[in-house]
Amino acid sequence: MRNIFIVCALLACNLFMNAQESEKYPLGDYTELTDTKPHDDAATWDKLGTPTQLSWGSTDVRYPKLSIPDVRKTNRWRTKAWKGERVNAQAVLWTKTGVKEAQVSVSDLRNGSHVIPASAISAHFVRYVMTDELNKDRKGGCGVRENKAEWDSSLVADVLDIVKVRDIQARATQPIWTQVRVPASAPAGTYKGILTVSGKDLESMELRIEVDVTNRVLPAPKEWAFHLDLWQNPYAVARYYQVPLWSEAHFEAMRPIMRMLADAGQKSITTSIMHKPWNGQTEDHFDSMVTRVKKIDGTWQYDYAVFDKWVEFMMNEIGIDQMISCYTMIPWKLSFDYYDEATNRVLFVDTKPGEAAYADYWGSFLKDFARHLKEKGWFEKTAISMDERPMEAMREAIKVIKQADPAFKITLAGNYHPEIQQDLYYLSIPYGHLFPADVKAERERKGQISTMYTCCAEAFPNTFTFSDPAEAAWTVLHALAAGYDGYLRWAVNSWTADPLRDSRFRTWAAGDTYSIYPGPRSSIRFERLVEGLQDCEKIRVLREEFEAKGAQGKLKRLNKAVAQCTPEGLAETQRSASEMVNELHSLLNNL
Amino acid sequence: MRNIFIVCALLACNLFMNAQESEKYPLGDYTELTDTKPHDDAATWDKLGTPTQLSWGSTDVRYPKLSIPDVRKTNRWRTKAWKGERVNAQAVLWTKTGVKEAQVSVSDLRNGSHVIPASAISAHFVRYVMTDELNKDRKGGCGVRENKAEWDSSLVADVLDIVKVRDIQARATQPIWTQVRVPASAPAGTYKGILTVSGKDLESMELRIEVDVTNRVLPAPKEWAFHLDLWQNPYAVARYYQVPLWSEAHFEAMRPIMRMLADAGQKSITTSIMHKPWNGQTEDHFDSMVTRVKKIDGTWQYDYAVFDKWVEFMMNEIGIDQMISCYTMIPWKLSFDYYDEATNRVLFVDTKPGEAAYADYWGSFLKDFARHLKEKGWFEKTAISMDERPMEAMREAIKVIKQADPAFKITLAGNYHPEIQQDLYYLSIPYGHLFPADVKAERERKGQISTMYTCCAEAFPNTFTFSDPAEAAWTVLHALAAGYDGYLRWAVNSWTADPLRDSRFRTWAAGDTYSIYPGPRSSIRFERLVEGLQDCEKIRVLREEFEAKGAQGKLKRLNKAVAQCTPEGLAETQRSASEMVNELHSLLNNL
């Protein structure tokens, strides 16, 4: 086993390796967990005339792994797209005999002499991950789930693999996620090409791709107005990739992951300014990115090497540079770390807002932090972030912040509180909660950001691994429809112990803690989220255009369709989230 | 209880407080553990004619607590003393009725118009501490003693209390340790005075003191030639006094303890340059007095705030300034601490001499440490200290030290190794091991220090709490007699969990880890050690004097007596250690 690995590493052939179940943190191929759910039996599979079949399917469906997929066979995918847009389709292959060394290739897409090159098109084997289910009352996914046996688990299609050649087992379905990144410079017109599936002892099968590029241009993700805030977890990356924290290898591993976020229009850098800002609730707890030393004379000394390196990396190498969120001054466990020079240990002060020790610990830090941030030119972008705590505690924390520097920006992810909302530069409130219209307008006027978040609490909409794929898009379209400035989710890569194979966690419904997989591998959830984010930006562009042109009819049609993206709209129109999302998507391409 | 304490603190009356058994770390009075050994019964006590009696006794005896002491009653203590010398006597009080609020006072000692003031005389109630015994084979006291029930325990007189007023129980013996510090300026002659014991409902009892001050002057302890090296443990002090490490309160607590050492001619400052240099073998482990930070770029950063404060305190406030011993580069557990900036944790490098990681960890530190020491003007006084390890490891460590700075001094407390002895500025070898005469002479010529040590290994001589008091003096007189430059003991205040009441420890025979008690309180062992140290210096002075004067007869008598301070001398002269020590002491006053 060790020899095989060494040889393969030398030959860079690990992608061809048989998956090793013994590998704890696979980066190449891997073996999925066993699908124990009822599925088509051998007799049903054996009735298939053509042993291996291929068709375009739908991006709304997580095709079961061991049953013949329910698709209306079609070999042409036709879609419209804006210049600069990413468009997705899902092909499905199913086989009663299995396919050895299956692989997918795509041709250039051609429109006369114009070309969308094959390099702008990607095809991913969709992989299956273990998921669970909503709480028994179907009202959400919060709460502890230590005993996995209590939850109905199943294998679902979600991971978009980066392994390019793999064996497909007999009597199995293999979805293939396909994405075309239309260059912003592509002239309008219809681009055509071919997706080919080949394999050992398999006659190659083809599907047609046709992308009608319209004349409109989707701005680059960095320009998107929608304030996206998916919290990053660098600590999970270090653990999964088994690299020293903040080493070059660590940044190397994070680079493609964080670029996926930048490509989704991410605005905020997640930083932790204390040990376990969320009490270590994720598989890999966050630690302090600031070194705090308590000197023997009782004074504090700070070092920002980790904070600076992470922020500089995100800003300069990744391009996420609008906001630095610093978690947190009011953690759930009010215990604050420092390296104690006297005892040569990391110790903790147990104190709470309102106490002198709290004001000393934070006041001293925030003054120095403000000085440092100003030196780096980051002060205006940085926000001291709080989690929901009792009002009195939040007020005391705000007092300490303002005392350190009245100009410090402050954020809260929590409930809407009229008492403190004016102090919050950035306020993200739960799905279903609303800002009073006058407050929202006033906040906008003052340049304050007002968003919504979802977490474990929502049965719908959500991005659990068992959630309907379209919910990811619907969520952000809803955020726009309901007048929020953006969307926050508390975890995008807080990986479970074995994230590629098992998305279940010791708390919350499966998939709650991440939608980007190691590799990095995207997911059906993440790509549908990006689709929604693109449509949000398209709505913004169209509104601007229609308003500028005075195209009231189109504006009205657009706004009416957008306004339906609410729970009430779903009920009223009797549409599913996927129908609503797809119709709106189509409208945005045809207005 | 709290109220009592507060009132007493306000009135500075805590010395009068009833001992509180619930007090974990008593600083005032306290209740001794129960003496469970056979002792004189009530009938025997009741036969006493005079209910409470007082006499001078012997400093060689640990008088049992619950039996009538075996003393030839005498009310006059007469002794010779050099100017500047401390002389000790032990009085014994025994009572069948008990004495409430017993206290001891001393008068000035008068010689015509010359006075040794009462302030130069101290009297201490001798307190009883739990001890155990030698190993079952009587060969020493090494090894683990987790199960106290396996060892024969008893209460022994050792602690010299600082509580001045206390109740003496009925049918009990209360020794009173008495010390006269003869001023260096006192004119020769016989000084006389009175020691008085009084108590509630007790007619005061008196004992006479007569000190014949000779014309010779004992140099101040700082000038003593004998190289005394008793390792200090600041961590034990912080724990017992419940004060933050390296705080002003901590130094306040250490000041009188360390002054006792300075007064004994202590030469070395014990410093720890890593976490647990001795694998945490004491109740309070040593931690690193150096802050080592591993930066995320892999470089090391050092801070010497603790080291500097401790060394400056010892040098400037205490006057111990000849040597700074830095423990250790080769600990028993080869695991080396640092604060890791990346993970915000104290981490450990597991590496051993000869490995690149070892050379990196130590080489980088030693270079910076040398720079720092030179800046402080301490480089010439500082020695990197090693414990006994395999030869190859010691050689590799020496190589790393020499590479960092060829002029670095190096010490070893361990066996004599001809292969490396020339590299060792300071080498302390076990009792009974000898330096070859030519090597010792060569080392002397080169200014290298060669001493001996005792630890748990010696059944005799030792300073366990059950050791004969005179052994403490005999040990250092032996060191001188056998041609060593001094004496090392690895612990002088590494206190047990409850050091005033129980000297037993989880390893080694009781008392191995300390001879100074919290308070600070001296001990019979410590005072007898100082007596030996004084006599060592007196021997040096007399030799110099006799050589200068050509007083060959006296020199010969002196050297003959000194030379007997060996195990062979004891056997040959058929004397006990106390007899030998006392005779030599007497000779030094009469030559």
TrEMBL record, chains A, B:
In Swiss-Prot or TrEMBL terms, this protein is called: DUF4091 domain-containing protein
Q: Where is the Glycoside hydrolase 123 catalytic domain?
A: 231-542
| Occurrences of domain Glycoside hydrolase 123 N-terminal (ranges) | 56-198
**What keywords were assigned to this record?**
Signal
Q: Tell whether Signal is among the UniProt keywords.
A: yes
Is Glycoprotein set as a keyword in this record? no
Give the signal peptide as a residue range, or say none if absent.
1-19
Question: Which Pfam families does this entry report, sorted A to Z?
Answer: GH123_cat, Glyco_hydro_123_N_2
Listed InterPro entries: GH123_cat, Glyco_hydro_123_N_2
